[in-house]
Each structure stands twice: as C-alpha cells, then as structure tokens.
Design brief:
mainly alpha, Rossmann fold, Glutamyl-tRNA Synthetase, domain 3, Helicase, Ruva Protein, domain 3, three-stranded antiparallel beta sheet, two-stranded parallel sheet, elongated
Length: 490
C-alpha cells in the first residue's frame, strides 16, 4: 500500500472523550503511520445544540496527552483547511445546490407526524418502514404550493435503485438490499447539514482513502457510498471512494456495549487516576487487534510498525478494567525511576504535597522514594497514599483514624522503638532494621508483623506503606523520632 494513504479521525465535540473514541483514533493513527500515510484530525461540529468549545478543547488536549499526533487538522492546518465543519458550511451549501440542480437530491415537505403515520402503516402491512419517496417526484408547482402553506423542506438524496455491496477491511463482503436504504435526509428543514452529507463531502474533498470506524456506523455505509457516487457525478472530489473497515464493539459490564455513561469509558477518569497514556493505548490496541504471538506489551511505535488491519477481529471486544490496570502497572515498572518521578510530580502537586515547581530538596526525596514504590504501584494516583507521609508537613501529619495504636502492646512497641532509635548513631536502613529487630523481636518477643505494625502506623499514618526501614531512612531522624513521640499516649 502506498504513502497516498489518507485516513481521518472525526469526532463530534459533545461531552468528555471516551475510550471507544480513543480506540478509533488509535487504529486510524496506527494505520496511517504503518503505511507512511496522512492522519487527518477533523472536527464534526455542525450540531450547535450539542457541540461545545470545552469539548473541542478537551479533544485536542486528549490526543496530545495520548501522543497521537496529527498531520492535518486544528492547530496544524493543511491543504484542505478549515478542519472544523462549523467553518465549512458554505462548502456544504454549495454542494447541496449542485445536487439539487443535478436532480440527485430533492426537497421533502413531509412533517414528522406524516412520516411516522406512513411508517406505522408500513409496519402494519409488513413492509420495510423506511421513507416511501412521497416527495420524490414533486413538480416545481407542487413544491411552491407546499412552501406557500408554510411548510419547510428538508433535503433528501435520491438513492439509486440498486443493492449495495463493499469489501469491508474487517468484515469481508457486506451487502445491504435496496429496500433497506431509502432516500435519506442530508439537510434538516431548518437548514442544518447532517452527518450523512458533511462526512462524505469532507472525505471526498480531503481525498480520504480509508475509513476505519465503529461497527455502529455499518448501516450508514450504503448511504455514504451513494453520496460518493453523487459527488463524483457533480465533480466534487477526485471521484474516488474510500475503503471501509468497521471496528468491533467495545463491551462493558454485563456484556453490554460500553457507552459514554459508563464510568470506565471516561478518558478523563484514567488521566485523573494516573494511568499512563502508553499503557492505556497499549490496552486499547488489544481490544479487537492482535500483534500476534500472544504479545500483549508493546509501545506505540511498535504497534504502528506491526499494524495490519487484517488482524482486526470483527468480534466484540470486552473492556476489562483489571487487565487495563495490570498493563498500567507493567508500564510503570518498565520506565526509569527518573521518568516515573517526573510523572508523579503533578499528582503530588495536585494533592498539595510538593511545590509547583518542585524544589530540589523535594525532588531528592522523591528520587529516593520512587524505587521503593515503583514495583507496587498500579497507577500514579496512588502516589499520595504511598508517599504522602514523606512530604506532608509535621503540623498536617495525621494517623489514619481507623488505625488504633493506643492499645497497651502498641504503646509498648513505640516506647521500645524510641529507646532503640535514640541510641543509634548511623541513620540508614540496615542500622535501623538491626536496632528495631533487636528491640522488638528479640527484646519484646513479638512477631515482625506485630512488632513493626505500630511503628509503621506511627510514622506513615497507615498500615500499608513502602518498605519500613528505607522509609525511616528517607524520613530522617528528627521527623521519625518526632512522630513516634507524638504517637505515645502513656
């Protein structure tokens, strides 16, 4: 396949970006990069009631965060600008005029109530309940009379009388009978152009060669094929028709299609919880595609190099949050400690634990601590819980109220620990461990879990923390002894 490959990702800016949309972007990006082609980022924002500027900006920010760079589109430009459909309305209006003049489209004056009445009658008679062509052959006088009644006209494309077959890149040969594809609306009665018009018009003008999109749009493909024929007839675009590939559904809990309303579908949630973009894309790539040889861990460049659309399965793929999280943990462990530290910083800043920008002293503490938690972390958002005790001020430090160390045994442990630690000169993990083992295990005869549990809570505030002795070394003598002293109740 040549470098003439041109694909597009064309979301609507409605609501927050979701993982199903990201997977579509990823597959298109990988297809373009694999073939040395062009990845076009286009915004389909002709629905003024639902589209928002905030959602538009969130789309751009999300693709940048994910590392899915685009060759043409917003902020980049390109030979077919503008790439926001709300800025291309004159283009669509001109195309509609040409379609009407060529007799390839026509005005439809049917009201919603009339359309529903005729659809219901078709159902009763066992006929396909699509549009029945009521306005298909109206004369100019009839149109004028209907307009004089105050009726507004939608515009419909005149569908050719034929079945529709194409070789889908994912599903193989697909056929829709002509009875299932009636004349369809391309412009609403209020003048707003619809997806059924603007999408193929832009594809034609932008020379899109391949369309990879969700299976939910499979049934709209015959309409678009018909529109490409009509556009070629009036000389819009180069006359070519893209090849289509329809990606499998992403299923959520209960084996239902993952929707925008499902919490696990929100891209923002993954960003806020500290999933790595590399890990999220790695996992999403596995939803319907396989690199082969049971390989499940790979980078974005490796995916692009290996991407073959023939390896996309037509079967639904299930989104497994646990597996996604496990892959994220694998990615955290794969990166250098300095890189993980750099990525943890924004989370510590968000939680008010380090300065913005982080100070040299804070960075030094973080670099000592990262190796202690990197093997244990599943998300970067866990940094506050694991490392917060190292950065919180002594005045703000607090023990988890669910962790009771006021009992007699815990107080005995704390007293013995203070005595042992006050007696040592060096403050390093081996010395700390030796002193505490001698005092608590040998001296008090306690098991390690019991012996060190109260110490851990007193100095970290939690029962679960990074390795204790290394944590005490990083925390330092003064702060460690201060917290143990503050934990004494007797």
């Amino acid at each position: 396949m040549s470098s003439d490959v041109r694909v597009r990702f064309c979301p609507s800016p409605t609501g927050n970006p979701h993982v199903g949309m990201v997977r579509t972007a990823l597959f298109n990006w990988a297809f373009a990069r694999h073939h040395g082609g062009t990845f076009v980022f286009r915004i389909e924002d002709t629905d003024a009631e639902r589209d928002s500027e905030d959602s538009y900006l969130a789309l751009l920010d999300s693709l940048r965060w994910l590392g899915l760079d685009w060759d043409e589109g917003p902020e980049v430009g390109g030979p077919y600008a503008p790439y926001r459909q709300s800025e291309r309305l004159d283009i669509y209006a001109d195309v509609v005029r040409q379609l009407l003049d060529a007799g390839l489209a026509y005005p439809c004056y049917c009201t919603p109530a009339e359309l529903e009445e005729r659809r219901e009658q078709a159902r009763k008679e066992g006929r396909t309940p699509g549009y029945d062509g009521h306005c298909r052959d109206l004369t100019a006088d009839q149109c004028a009379a209907l307009a004089a009644e105050g009726r507004e006209a939608a515009i419909r494309l005149r569908m050719p009388d034929q079945d529709w077959t194409w070789d889908d890149l994912v599903r193989g040969e697909v056929t829709f009978g002509r009875e299932h594809v009636p004349d369809y609306v391309i412009v609403r009665a209020n003048g707003d152009p619809l997806y059924t018009l603007v999408n193929p018009v832009d594809d034609a003008l932008m020379r899109i060669t391949h369309v990879l999109r969700g299976e939910d749009l499979l049934s709209s493909t015959p309409r678009q094929l018909a529109m490409y024929q009509a556009l070629a007839a009036i000389g819009v675009g180069d006359g070519g028709t893209p090849r289509f590939g329809h990606l499998p559904y992403v299923m959520g809990e209960g084996n239902k299609k993952l929707s925008k309303r499902d919490p696990e579908s929100s891209l923002l949630m993954y960003r806020e919880q500290g999933y790595l973009p590399e890990a999220l894309l790695n996992y999403l790539a596995l939803l319907g595609w396989s690199m082969g040889e049971d390989r499940e861990f790979f980078s974005l460049p490796e995916m692009a190099e290996a991407f073959d659309v023939s390896r996309v399965s037509p079967n639904p793929a299930r989104f497994d949050l646990k597996k996604c999280t496990a892959i994220n943990g694998d990615w955290i462990r794969s990166l250098a400690p300095e890189e993980i530290g750099r990525r943890i910083v924004p989370f510590l800043q968000r939680d008010g634990l380090v300065e913005d920008p982080i100070s040299g002293e804070e960075w030094g503490v973080l670099m000592q601590a990262v190796p202690l938690v990197q093997e244990r972390m599943e998300t970067l958002g866990q940094a506050e819980g694991m490392l917060g005790f190292l950065f919180v001020s002594e005045s703000a430090f607090a023990i988890d109220p669910d962790q009771d160390i006021a009992d007699e045994q815990s107080q005995q442990v704390i007293a013995a620990s203070l005595e042992a630690l006050n007696a040592i000169d060096a403050w390093d993990a081996p010395t700390l461990e030796a002193a505490l083992r001698a005092a608590l295990i040998d001296g008090l005869g306690l098991k390690p879990k019991v012996a060190f549990g109260a110490v851990r809570v007193a100095v970290t505030g939690r029962r679960v923390s990074p390795p204790l002795f290394e944590s005490l070394e990083i925390l330092g003598r003064e702060r460690t002894l201060g917290r143990l002293t503050a934990a004494r109740t007797t």
